[in-house]
Write a structure and sequence with these properties.
This protein has four helices and no strands. The protein is an all-alpha fold and 147 residues long. Helix 1 runs antiparallel to helix 2. The chain starts with a helix and ends in a 16-residue tail after the last helix. The mean pLDDT is 77.
Length: 147
């Protein structure tokens, strides 16, 4: 019996690299969002610094916040691109690992390949039972004696 040590180690390496990349993107994105939210909070509070009770509310200036929202959107797009790239690299590594299988490992490879296929979202097939007309209720073969 052959054991797929090379494939298992290649899968482990690919999974480790993918998880590391996701963690790195999450950490960097979190740091960026904390910085941007700090800037946004200070911008909002600075506008109300000189507000005194009994006076009219100052006009809210949203230009600075719009710039900060643009920065958040830009960072989100960068993170999405990095995640997409990491996922494609991971898929390629998994595909390469399974393409190296010997004949004895082919059955295992076919089973594991199904697990790593992207899930295709297809519309649900209509229920055949709902399409068929309801059958008539069955009657008993012997009539009951009511007398």
């Amino acid at each position: 019996m052959t054991y797929p040590f090379d494939q298992i180690s290649a899968l482990g390496k690919a999974n480790g690299q993918f998880a590391t990349t996701l963690a790195q993107v999450a950490r960097e994105s979190g740091e960026t969002y904390v910085k941007v939210s700090g800037k946004a909070a200070s911008t909002i509070f600075d506008q109300f610094k000189e507000f005194k009770p009994g006076t009219s509310a100052p006009a809210f200036k949203s230009d600075e916040l719009t710039g900060l929202l643009g920065e958040i959107e830009k960072r989100h797009e960068e993170a999405s691109a990095r995640i997409r790239s990491a996922f494609e690299d991971w898929q390629g590594a998994v595909k390469d690992a399974f393409s190296q299988a010997t004949e004895g490992q082919q059955a295992l490879t076919e089973k594991l390949t199904v697990w790593f296929q992207p899930v295709a979202k297809t519309p649900a097939a209509p229920d055949k039972a709902a399409e068929e007309p309801a059958s008539t209720p069955r009657t008993t073969a012997k009539p009951k004696d009511t007398a």
